[in-house]
Design a protein that fits this description.
- This protein is of the alpha+beta class.
- It has 22 helices and 22 strands.
- Strand 1 (about 5-10), helix 1 (about 15-25) and strand 2 (about 30-35) form a beta-alpha-beta unit.
- It is globular, with a radius of gyration of 26 Å.
- Pfam families: GIDA (PF01134), GIDA_C_1st (PF21680), SAM_GIDA_C (PF13932).
């Protein structure tokens, strides 16, 4: 029935879509298998993309030729740049999205790719011969052969939904769980575990009183994720903020005895940084209120996502508590919140390419690796799809370093350190975050994608022009000065010390109160020069000047660390032969099989003295 494919991708969530697209765009024939073609790229939880560190990941995916940023831009309800009051390393783009349009755009994109076929079915087994993935067997009993398989099963592996004392088998509300695959992988020697996540109730927006809530609009000056300048919706939608109170908390507490969270029915660990509302009031008993974000799910639908009210309490308790929140007095609930437990595979069983260590040509991406979030999933899917194609064609693998991308930090953390709770990306996880900003993702990663063949010459030329133009403006500011007569009126307005003599523009822009627009206002020649450049280039120039000394220090650290990162370790290295290593270090090194000395140094349980032993032996 089926011809052999180069790559089979199992699951059409955010990881699966990016995996299928990246492998196909490199030239592989791809079969994307999904249980339900009607929910491709479904935003199962919050209808939003980006946020702190996550927005940086989306821009990185886009810079390398992925689609999450493009799809997000096309379906944006509202866009905000978070943390603008902080330094540029913390600026994080976030969009509220039209859930239905987002999924539709992803499906249309996949259908437009000539190398992608889609099949609706459930995979129950990976075909493994001589330690290598050779295809899959579906629930219909169809055997489909392939050179590589990418598993992106999300929350569907033995998924179990909890609402109060009720337990329902499913990977998402209204959708059945996937069974059999976990058991097969365990029989092959893989270690599995259980995790949990949750989602809030959805309500009818017509039943809410928005006059009792705070309005939250997007940025007046619209931003975007993609560097491709795709068309974005002209209108924006308002979101709102309201708060729980003591009465809400008291009602919620009445359901604790039936809560699967507190009765031990849920065994898996949930996301630390996105706790359920019952977990919040239990852990933070001193707080008399918690913030609730009221977010529309689309331009045309009246469905509302109650962000901050994730819960698995009985549905009657959920509704009673909701109606005590200001603005929700007459709320009508479309569907209750729930928790879901699912199988995952601890990611220390993977190589940095996301290929499994136990089975060749088998790749894992997304929540199967213990992560949470559309953005983290999309990034892993993209990398897994690229590496599946590269692996079967004996081409150079894609491994991004921690010093060049958040994607590199994400995968290195997973593979090197593992995770026992749903992993979420934060800026604090990246030690070189000053270099990994959302504004320079194209500069960092587009050249890499161009070498792979994912980015065309025209787009690379655009990036090179941005670099050259920014460098020219920086040099111009180093060589040209402004006089006290020109600049002092502006300095007085912003409360900065006046000039006594001419000063280089570069030095002036280093002042915290001064931005590039202030200098342009004082100097007409510079103002006319800036008019020739786009906003991205001007922003890049200002950041380069203001943080010049910090960048130099950061690059010095990166270069010093590079010696360890570039020191490769043979994957078949016999750590047991080094009796000077601690027993724990030997166990961990044998399990992870680090690629480099730098990766080895980040493994929990491997001490600096163990690294010294390795360095001596390798030298």
């Amino acid at each position: 029935m089926f011809n052999k494919y180069n790559v089979i991708v199992v699951g059409a969530g955010h990881a699966g879509c990016e995996a299928a697209a990246s492998a196909a765009n490199l030239g592989s024939s791809v079969l994307l298998i999904t249980m339900n073609m009607g929910v491709i790229a479904q935003m199962s939880c919050n209808p939003a993309i980006g946020g702190v560190a996550k927005g940086q990941i989306v821009r990185e995916i886009d810079a390398m030729g992925g689609y999450t940023g493009i799809i997000a831009d096309k379906s944006t309800l509202q866009f905000r740049m978070l943390n603008l009051s902080k330094g540029p390393a913390m600026w994080s783009p976030r969009s509220q999205n039209d859930r239905m349009r987002f999924a539709e755009e992803w499906r249309l994109t996949l259908e437009s790719l000539p190398n992608v076929d889609i099949w609706q079915d459930t995979v129950k087994e990976v075909i493994v011969e001589n330690g290598q993935a050779r295809g899959v067997v579906t629930s219909l009993g169809i055997r489909i052969e392939a050179d590589a398989v990418v598993l992106t099963n999300g929350t569907f592996l033995n998924g179990l939904i909890h609402i109060g004392e009720k337990k329902i088998g499913g990977g998402r509300t209204g959708e059945k769980a996937a069974t059999g695959l976990t058991e097969q992988l365990v029989s092959l020697g893989f270690e599995s575990g259980r995790m949990k996540t949750g989602t809030p109730p959805r309500v009818d927006g017509r039943s809410l009183n928005y006059s009792l809530m705070e309005e939250q609009w997007g940025d007046e000056k619209r931003g975007r994720f993609s560097y491709t300048n795709v068309d974005i919706p002209k209108e924006q939608r308002c979101c709102w903020i309201t708060y729980t109170n003591d009465k809400v908390h008291e009602v919620l507490k009445t359901g604790f005895e039936k809560s699967p969270m507190f009765t031990g029915r849920i065994k898996g660990l949930g996301p630390r940084y996105c706790p359920s509302i019952e977990d919040k009031i239990n852990r933070f008993a001193e707080r008399d209120r918690h913030q609730i974000f009221v977010e529309p799910e689309g331009f045309k639908t009246v469905e509302i996502y109650v962000n901050g009210f994730s819960t698995s309490l009985p549905e009657d308790v959920q509704l009673k508590a909701l109606r005590l929140i200001p603005g929700f007095e007459n709320a009508k609930m479309y569907r209750p919140g729930y928790a879901i437990e699912y199988d995952y595979f601890p990611p220390m069983q993977l190589d940095l390419t996301l290929e499994t260590l136990k089975v060749k040509h088998l790749f894992f991406a997304g929540q199967i690796n213990g992560t949470t979030g559309y953005e983290e999933a999309g990034a892993q899917g993209f990398v897994a799809g690229v590496n599946a194609h590269q692996r079967i064609n004996d081409l150079h693998e894609l491994i991004l370093k921690r010093s060049e991308s958040y994607i590199g930090v994400l995968i290195d953390d997973l593979v090197t350190k593992g995770t026992e709770e749903p992993y979420r990306m934060f800026t604090s996880r990246a030690e070189h975050r000053l270099l990994l900003r959302q504004d320079n993702a194209d500069i960092r990663l587009t050249p890499i994608a161009h070498k792979l063949g994912l980015i065309d010459d025209e787009r690379l030329e655009k990036v090179n022009k941005k670099i050259a133009d920014s460098d020219y403006l920086v040099d111009y500011m180093k060589q040209n000065s402004v006089s006290p007569d020109e600049m002092n009126p502006v300095l007085e307005q912003v409360g900065s010390s006046p000039l006594n003599q001419k000063s280089r523009m570069f030095n002036l822009l280093s002042r915290p109160q001064i931005n590039i627009a202030h200098i342009a206002k004082a100097n007409m020649e510079f103002s006319n020069l800036l008019n020739q450049y786009d906003e991205e280039t001007i922003e890049q120039t200002e950041i380069k000047v203001k943080y010049d000394s910090y960048f130099a220090k950061e690059m010095d650290i990166v270069n010093r660390m590079k010696k360890m990162e570039d020191k490769e370790i043979n994957p078949d290295f016999d750590y047991n032969s080094l009796i000077s290593l601690s027993i724990e270090a030997r166990e961990k090194l044998l399990k992870v099989k680090p690629r480099t000395l730098g990766q080895a140094s980040r493994i929990s349980g491997v001490s600096p003295s163990d690294i010294s032993v390795l360095m001596v032996h390798m030298s």
